[in-house]
Write a sequence for this structure.
């Protein structure tokens, strides 16, 4: 795969890596699908191997997304009938909603992490529990009633843009993928607890989903535990662990869920980790003078955030508070239902 090109440069032997294949590695076709979300379009990928054609992710369930998907699929030289299976990087609606319509055209096996299941099947008990759980989180985080109401309205919109399908196979770290023997499944919980990335070692290709995005820092989205009674997953702590894990992979090109390809994954991971350290310091400074609820911190830190984004900004803050609490840097004080945090 590699073409090593030796050239003499100013009398010295320099080693140049020809990365001309990097933006078009073997068998990978990128389709860019519009979404109604602030993040912009989502990238989904067709990976054509000798034994299989796999679709990684689908767009949200909108007419625009469907039109873009079918047109770009054809332009890449494929039809829906060529696809053998669908694999999800994670369960977010912009990555799976369109499956409802795709599976009506062809009954395809869908593979994803077990944690994606209650989301993509839209399990009624799980969603009832999810609402109850978030109502409690909003109260303890100091979210006012109006804002909480709006957040629940956003959850409903997201459900409409998502799919209601069943999973045919659960993928975990190391699970072999049918027809894709060169690929490894790597669990990367954080942005979503169901998040997986897919690595092809022979040419250093990574299908990174939303774990790595070049232009924006992915949110560690807060999720309730899958089962009542379990501890809530600490999204930012897990996200950082997953970033550090991916530093071990030798990646030439990471194909992301949003935006351009990433060719220097190591540098991007270093940057993300240090941006998080900076944000943590900033939050600590805010809490130095007065104890604050997570909602108060989110309003101070993101004064211009859209009201639609309350649950995302709150997720971000709670992620940081989890991390600081685990390091013993802050303590929480209960004040009726709310919890205010201060530096320890
Ligand atoms: Zn996502």
């Amino acid at each position: 795969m590699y073409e090593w090109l030796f050239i003499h440069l100013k009398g010295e032997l320099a080693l140049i890596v020809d990365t001309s294949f990097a933006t078009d590695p073997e068998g990978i076709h990128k389709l860019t699908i519009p979404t109604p979300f602030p993040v912009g379009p989502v990238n989904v990928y067709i990976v054509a191997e000798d034994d299989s054609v796999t679709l990684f992710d689908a767009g949200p369930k909108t007419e625009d997304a469907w039109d873009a998907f079918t047109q770009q699929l054809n332009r890449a030289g494929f039809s829906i009938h060529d696809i053998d299976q669908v694999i999800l990087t994670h369960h977010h609606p912009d990555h799976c909603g369109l499956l409802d319509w795709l599976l009506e055209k062809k009954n395809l096996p869908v593979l994803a992490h077990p944690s994606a299941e209650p989301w993509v099947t839209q399990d009624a008990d799980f969603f009832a529990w999810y609402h109850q759980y978030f109502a409690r989180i909003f109260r303890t985080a100091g979210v006012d009633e109006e804002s909480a109401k709006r957040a629940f309205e956003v959850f409903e919109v997201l459900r409409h843009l998502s799919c209601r399908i069943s999973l045919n196979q659960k993928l975990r770290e190391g699970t072999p993928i049918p027809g894709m023997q060169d690929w490894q499944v790597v669990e990367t919980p954080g942005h979503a607890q169901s998040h997986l990335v897919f690595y092809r070692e022979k040419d250093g290709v990574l299908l990174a989903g939303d774990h790595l995005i070049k232009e924006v820092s992915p949110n560690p989205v807060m999720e309730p535990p899958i089962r009542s009674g379990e501890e809530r997953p600490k999204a930012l702590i897990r996200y950082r662990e997953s970033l550090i894990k991916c530093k071990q992979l030798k990646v030439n090109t990471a194909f992301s869920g949003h935006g351009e390809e990433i060719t220097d994954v190591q540098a991007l991971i270093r940057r993300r980790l240090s941006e998080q350290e900076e944000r943590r310091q900033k939050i600590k400074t805010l809490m130095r003078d007065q104890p604050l609820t997570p909602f108060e911190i989110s309003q101070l830190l993101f004064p211009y955030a859209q009201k639609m984004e309350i649950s995302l900004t709150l997720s971000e803050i709670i992620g940081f508070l989890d991390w600081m609490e685990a390091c013993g840097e802050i303590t929480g004080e209960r004040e009726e239902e709310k919890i205010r945090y201060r530096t320890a």
In short: The radius of gyration is 21 Å. Residues 90, 92, 191-192, 210 surround zinc ion (CB under 6 Å). Residues 23-285 form a domain with the Metallo-beta-lactamase; Chain A fold (CATH 3.60.15.10). The chain has a mean pLDDT of 90.
